[in-house]
Design goal:
By secondary structure, the protein is of the alpha/beta class. Helix content is 50%, strand content 12%. The protein is built from 22 helices and 13 strands. Strand 2 (78-84) and strand 3 (88-93) form a beta hairpin. Helix 6 crosses helix 7 and helix 19 (458-468) packs antiparallel against helix 21 (484-503). It starts with a helix and ends in an 8-residue tail after the last helix.
Length: 544
């Protein structure tokens, strides 16, 4: 697979170099939605038209001529090349090449799809990072799953990934939590702007019963106890969701107490990028594209949260990461430019920072869900209701930029209307067929072109091509940081398999060679479904 794509991509790159010397543009081969437009499509001419004073169609025709000339010398398996308006170049693959690639897939299995696109990237992936002032909400759950799957994808394609949780344990909200718990421990009313939820009462009750409090109540640190209780809940919720972090960084202990905020502010001061106004200290972020300057130290000498964020991102880069990916909620959209400006002011490239905005979640259900810690539905409530696999899967059923309505009843359904059930059933059905296959002794050899050459039916070739297209899906998901494409693809592949199975028997009585070839074919589907589900963090059952 890598050899085929690398050859074709090299031909395209050389054609660009020959046709338009000096022009450079990133590209990748896409999958046409309509099969009449070929097996692979190139939209490079559309991108180049913004750089070259030519129409996309003219650029496409010039590239096509050059590509065809090179294919005469080294053809990795392309049958024909076509240009269609407004400027796409479409590639049709030979059936022999498709079968050859199927053989490679069966030999290499998951490694067949490891393109190495992420090689050389040392990425710190920060997500969730909810205030440790209570259990995680259903909105946090979406960010947790998306971040985890992006981490899986980046690592699979060769990046070195560190998943990090930034514990926001400093500031007003944590003080309010502490004050609320303290009030309840003394049988006093919770402060008006404090925390009223049921779980706060639980923390207060546990604090009163704790050994440390009973031994010496005057030395008992209520805030520390409350934050630890909440953080324990958060870690348990994430564990239930199958999400694990490599590092946990405390804003208070690791950034503020170690003097990293003061150090970052002083660094900017020496560069002449902070100034005093209205008794506060301001960062000149407008010099780096922000819409206004930002306060880093208030008039009362308290450092702002933004000052801590500057120090935290400085710390990330100084730990040797060459790419920072943050997953934030929609309320943080306006925060991107100020953090990017700070990174540039610190002397680093703004491109180090990549922010993915994850939209909100609402629930759709006809029934009533239990609420164990108050009136709000928490992440743990949702997992209890639908299970880990369904929770992870349904958090990915919309693109990151779209609001998600989580259909609880559909997630629990054991029918083909449930996309997760449909995909997992396809995997289990394939496992069942393979287990029934009992070839004669010695025939279970690696797939070869001779046996695969029997796969010539339209549905067979189409299913092979769809398996091979997973490479493109991974590339698309990698470039756009979008797990939804994987989920959507798995649904389409499962549908194609079920339709194939309705038309063609796999275990063909009296034809051992065709049976063997079709077992190889469905095994390739099993490999792809298994890998896709693994990247999503969802189990691939062998029986249902």
């Amino acid at each position: 697979m890598q050899e085929f794509y690398s050859q074709l991509e090299e031909i395209i790159a050389n054609s660009l170099k020959n046709s338009y010397p000096g022009e450079k543009a990133d590209f990748f081969l896409e999958i046409p939605r309509n099969r009449k437009f070929g097996d692979l499509a190139l939209s490079l001419p559309l991108k180049l038209s913004g750089l070259i004073e030519k129409t996309p169609l003219d650029i496409a025709n010039a590239l096509k001529t050059s590509i065809e000339e090179m294919l005469l010398e080294t053809n990795p398996g392309v049958d024909k090349v076509e240009v269609v308006p407004p400027g796409f170049i479409n590639f049709f693959l030979k059936d022999s090449a498709v079968r050859k690639l199927l053989g490679d897939l069966l030999k290499q299995e998951e490694d067949f799809f490891r393109s190495g696109k992420g090689s050389g990237q040392k990425i710190i992936l920060e997500f969730v990072s909810a205030n440790p002032t209570g259990p995680l909400s259903i909105a946090h759950g979406r960010q947790a799953v998306v971040g985890d799957v992006i981490g899986n994808l980046l690592a699979f394609l060769g990046s070195e990934v560190t998943r990090e949780y930034y514990i926001n344990d400093a500031g007003k909200q944590t003080d309010l939590l502490s004050d609320s718990v303290s009030a309840l421990m003394c049988n006093k009313p919770v402060p008006q702007d404090g925390y009223q939820a049921e779980y706060v009462k639980q923390i207060a009750s546990q604090a009163l019963e704790s050994k440390d409090y009973r031994v010496r109540s005057d030395a008992f640190d209520i805030k520390e106890f409350a934050l630890k209780s909440c953080l324990d809940w958060i870690k348990k919720d994430l564990e239930l969701l199958g999400v694990n972090f490599d590092t946990w960084i405390s804003q208070q202990r690791d950034i503020i107490d170690k003097g990293k905020v003061e150090e970052a502010v002083e660094f900017l001061r020496k560069k002449g990028l902070v100034y005093g106004k209205e008794e506060a200290l301001w960062f000149s972020s407008t010099k780096f594209g922000d819409d206004k300057d930002r306060v880093v130290r208030k008039a009362d000498t308290e450092l702002t949260y933004f000052a801590s964020d500057i120090a935290y991102h400085k710390d990330k880069i100084e730990r040797g990461f060459n790419a920072i990916i943050n997953l934030w909620g929609p309320d943080h959209h306006g925060y991107i430019s100020r953090v990017a400006s700070a990174i540039e002011a610190l002397g680093f490239k703004r491109e180090f920072l990549e922010v993915i905005i994850i939209q909100l979640v609402s629930l759709k259900t006809k029934g009533r869900m239990s609420k164990r810690k108050g009136t709000a539905v928490l992440l743990s409530d949702l997992i209890d209701e639908v299970g880990k696999d369904a929770a992870r899967f349904y958090y990915l059923t919309r693109k990151n930029s779209s609001h998600l309505e989580f259909d609880v009843d559909l997630a629990k359904a054991k029918t083909f209307d449930n996309p997760l059930y449909y995909i997992q059933y396809a995997h289990a059905r394939i496992c069942s067929i393979i287990n029934k296959y009992n070839p004669e002794s010695g025939s279970q050899r690696p797939a070869d072109l001779e046996s695969l050459s029997l796969l010539s039916e339209e549905e067979e070739i189409s299913l092979i091509k769809q398996c091979l297209q997973f490479k493109n899906i991974l590339e698309l998901s990698f470039q756009q940081r979008e797990p939804y494409f994987i989920l959507d693809y798995l649904g389409g592949l499962s549908s194609s398999f079920h339709k194939f199975y309705e038309v063609h028997r796999v275990l063909v009585e009296g034809d051992k060679d065709l049976t063997r070839a079709r077992v190889y074919l469905i095994k390739s589907v099993k490999i792809v479904l298994g890998l896709g589900l693994k990247l999503l963090g969802v189990c691939a059952p062998e029986e249902m």
